[in-house]
What does this fold into?
Amino acid sequence: MEKFAADAKDVLGYTLQLQEDLQSRISNLEACLRRNNIRIHGIAEGEEGDNMSEFIEIFMKKELSLMDSNLGIQRCHRSLGPKPPLGANPRSIVIYFLE
It folds into this structure.
């Protein structure tokens, strides 16, 4: 019984160390994924119409004077969550760039 308890303690220690290492790696990956992202706040819900990517491309080129630039947008969408009621602050727009 004592050998079983000692073995279980060793396995638990190893498992906890492995979990800590994996959590650290996940945090690093999440940080890397966020590097090429931006959020835009204050654009009214529905203003983007049916094509969010096209709307954002036009919006950014106009507002940032980037007419001749390829922005390299991979994807974009409203932040997750329910659509806010009328008069409430709109959800932010999350933009993922290729580089």
